[in-house]
Amino acid sequence: MATTSTRTGTRPEPAADSHRAAGGAGLVRLRLDVAYDGTDFSGWAAQPGRRTVAGVLLAELNRLFASPSGLVVAGRTDAGVHATGQVCHVEVPAAEWSAIGDSLGRRLARLLPRDLRVTAVVPVPSTFDARFSALWRRYEYRVTDAPWGADPLRARDTLAWPRRLDLNALRTAAAGLVGEHDFAAYCRRKEHATTLRHLARLDWRRDPDGVLVAEVEADAFCQAMVRSLVGGLLPVGDGRRPVPWPASLLGRSQRADEVPVAPAYGLTLVAVGYPAQEDEYAQRAALTRARRVR
Amino acid sequence: MATTSTRTGTRPEPAADSHRAAGGAGLVRLRLDVAYDGTDFSGWAAQPGRRTVAGVLLAELNRLFASPSGLVVAGRTDAGVHATGQVCHVEVPAAEWSAIGDSLGRRLARLLPRDLRVTAVVPVPSTFDARFSALWRRYEYRVTDAPWGADPLRARDTLAWPRRLDLNALRTAAAGLVGEHDFAAYCRRKEHATTLRHLARLDWRRDPDGVLVAEVEADAFCQAMVRSLVGGLLPVGDGRRPVPWPASLLGRSQRADEVPVAPAYGLTLVAVGYPAQEDEYAQRAALTRARRVR
Description:
Two copies of one chain form a homodimer. Chain A is of the alpha+beta class. Chain A has helices at 53-64, 94-100, 104-111, 167-175, 225-237, 245-248, 281-291, and strands spanning 27-36, 69-73, 82-93, 116-124, 136-144, 159-160, 179-182, 196-206, 212-218, 267-273. The first copy, chain A, has two domains: 25-133, Pseudouridine synthase I, catalytic domain, N-terminal subdomain (Alpha-Beta Plaits), CATH 3.30.70; 136-271, Pseudouridine synthase I, catalytic domain, C-terminal subdomain (Alpha-Beta Plaits, 2-Layer Sandwich), CATH 3.30.70.660.
């Protein structure tokens, strides 16, 4: 397989007419659903000299396609963060897609390492944008308060908290953060970027095995926001901060330094939501871009 | 802490009278419930130069007690096999136990590596024998037949099977193995050891995430028996062997070489059962010893 891909952001010209699809576009956009154990990745985004999810995925796509281009992801997860329901899109020459087609999933299963899986591949309209068409992202954060720590088989994605956590205190404090707010207190500073977000869901449950799971959903998140929300709630759960404290920080104009950022390894991106109708992809993307949320 | 323990199988004499408990026995037997990710262990049993569960556990017990002795385990798991509900017992000087007592669990949580946890510590009568008092052992084996493989966060304890598996075929074939049989076909050969076992339960379920889980329970198992049972059933599940085939091998006088041994990493010891009444410990142990099952 050739490896002459361009990833400059512009679409590469197909090398021959045979690469042109019937529709004339010449490229097929593919939606890839992706799962990974973030432990041994330096996050999603490709970086020279680092093992990243995008880097490993592109390396294998380059074995299968002469010129995959424009890999775009729904949630640029930080180093150590996991995913069971990440979504990205990529464009490949239509003729190559016709030749590989249904076997792409199986080929990627063989080529990719065990800590990175492509769980679904489907062609999508070119109006589908994994990042800008997304309606919401949903994360989960796992914490155990068992005095002996985390189940060894889940130690890679479960934070061990050294004090007992009160589920009701966590839930009540979390409820105070739900809704549209300026989350500057919970965002890493970024110039000229809005920190206004609509937090659709922030709740906690205790699973049958005793593990506490935060369920967090929003249209979009600023960097390290979920880990900051969890970091602000845990001291409420163990009684060191009062229940109203996390909500009292809303509306601050900058990062609240007293809010710790919970470790990355407890966090998993579990799902990304898109419009049900294909003709809404472009509309949603235009709206998102206009709001300039990341 | 001193590290002058003896592990010769005989009880060490306490160094001073202060080590003698009021009852005069001088030693307290402790039941430890243990969980581990078997990936980086060469099995349970201590071996020179190898990282084993018993070896790591004893090293830390030796930091806390001058002379822990007689570590005995319910299920001597092979290299790579995991546990969420392993049980062992150990004896420590009564005076040292009185001094450490309730803090032992927390101390072990700090000292032990993340892939090995002691989830409970309780003093038990000296008639309690983790191995011989056990009524049953229960294992689970996880297999995914998703074409893309195992969820990366569960790849350490889930076998990826390359063909679709039929739950009904697996269940029907498994039912034919339940009961008291000579499991020689499914046992590694061992001289002068009975291969008669009572398989109380062998069933399959498909979890909401699509993973197939075999639930296996018996009074005791011979070596690699659970992995051989699973290895015999999977070719039925994917249609390459007929449903009656696994049961047809019962009663053979030696290992059936055509039965593959499923990989260790899919297997987890989830629970060990003991008599409800303390006065039954010794009775059960005598019965087990008489049967000479391992």
